[in-house]
Specification:
The complex is a heterodimer of chains A (about 250) and B (about 350). With about 250 residues, chain A is mostly helical. Chain A has one domain. Helix content of chain A is about 75%, strand content about 0%. By secondary structure, chain B is of the alpha/beta class. Chain B is about 30% helix and about 25% strand. The chains are: A mainly alpha (about 250), B alpha/beta (about 350).
Amino acid sequence: MSVYALTDSWTMTRRELAHWARQPVQVVVSLVFPVMLLLMFGYLVGGGRAVEGDYVDYLVPGMLALTMAFGLEGTMLAVTQDLNKGVIDRFRSMPMADGAVLVGRSAADMLQSAIGLVVLIGVGLGLGWRPHAGPGQFLGAVGLLLLFRFAMLWVGIQLALVAGRPEMVQAVQILVWPVGFLSNALATPAAMPGWLGSVVQWNPMSQTATAVRELFGGPGGESGHVWAAVVWPLGLLVVFFPLAVRRFRGLGG
Amino acid sequence: MADAAIIVEDAHKTYGEKKSRKGTGAEGGDGPTGVKKALDGLDLRVARGTVHGVLGPNGAGKTTLVRVLSTLLRPDSGRVEVAGYDVLSEARAVRFRIGLLGQHAALDEELGGRQNLEMFGCLHHLGARHARVRADELLERFDLVDTGRKPVRAYSGGMRRRLDLAASLVTAPEILFLDEPTTGLDPRGRAEVWTAVRSLVGGGTTVLLTTQYLEEADQLADRVSVVDQGRVIADGTPDSLKSRMGGDRIDVVLRDAGQLGAAVALLPFPEADVSVDVDRRLLSAPVTDRMTALSGVVRALGEGGIDAEDVALRRPTLDEVFLHLTGGGGGGGDGAGAGAGAGRRTNVKEAV
């Protein structure tokens, strides 16, 4: 049973990878999109933002966090599409491990996000961003980003299972922008009206961004945010992981 | 009991009571108007190694029944056992023993045929190598070898159906559910599915198939349950049902509607049995001996000098069967009551 949980999850992960091989353009677009945002905000929109030091040093870690947050919509879209396909009926009528479909989804999404981070970090370095961090801090920052992505992943799965319709995905795809921008990813809260600044401070994504900036040793980093960047995603996972698994199991109730 | 592959007792399933889930064909949206009793005290018993046909019109509850039996949908109440296991408490054991061919293709449309079959083989825990071998066998058997890497979404309807059937046979299941397996297929595709079903039964598989076609049930099934509004309104062997449905009918289409009255008087049947459809210039009557009736009609029309456009023997249509089974009388054939609905609840279940 537990062995099957692993092999089934692996089979479902391979299914997602096979989809990538079938749709390489989609994969490339999803990797290029954050790069495009980074370039847009770095050169077209950005400049200054009342940030001390070089804006690129502020922007790159923020974009990394923002990309992880935007992963939510990708996950939600994929799960929604899957649920509306006939194949899900066959999966559910087979003796496969309960969570394998979801585990396959999350493994593939995490892999894609990891690749996305590598690409974005590479482009950031090309733009002149220089992390002032030892290998331990660097990996710690990447770990925090992926942890945040993992939490967003399960939020996305739960949203897809609850809403489950393409129209709802569209709504979330639009809403993710203001929510994502209502953070310190692109601009420092110091430059915002006081009340907005406090809202922004509380956005879980801001915690991750601040902690990552701290670990990378750039502007906008404040000490003492790493714990928040661990606790927030874990808290989200504690709520959304069991909800999503139960919801998936109870399909057809 | 021991030889029953499927047992359903007093199963109930209502859609739309609090959550409206999609994908079951039960439309209606939100709100109390969406409430629909899909299964309403359904009873069914299928013996091992037999083909059982579930016959009924759209919305009778056939698909809901298949989804409950294949553990996709939880019944609200009642006892449902498949291969000796309860679909609710032992769903996993059930899933090891069933194959499902739903109304819509349950395939990964982005992947190719071989990729699909290998994936399902792996999920049935055949092991990678065995899954590959099995995929080869099935591709061969269903004439899909030359599909190559083409994604399923580019398949024709018939190819898709064959691959779907192949996917439901990855493990040679004990019990196979076929939900309207030939709906939308051309005659060739239909014949292929029928052949495949027959060969499976030869191998000992129990098959439950739903259909809207009397002919299909007649061709394949050892026993047939007629379902309407979520319950079984008749069951028995196809022959016993047919005889109770009034058997064959003869249709005569005249050239001149003005001669209908004269023709009724001439035909070798009691006048009360003959139904008349003036718009279609059609006379219809039940027959017992097909050949005698046919030659009798042709002779009577010839002697009376009545010009007929067409004379044909046919089986009763599903509408007529339903009218008959639901107490609409044996007169059928006038087609008026095709969907005549609410209130027909007569249970004429045959004593086995």
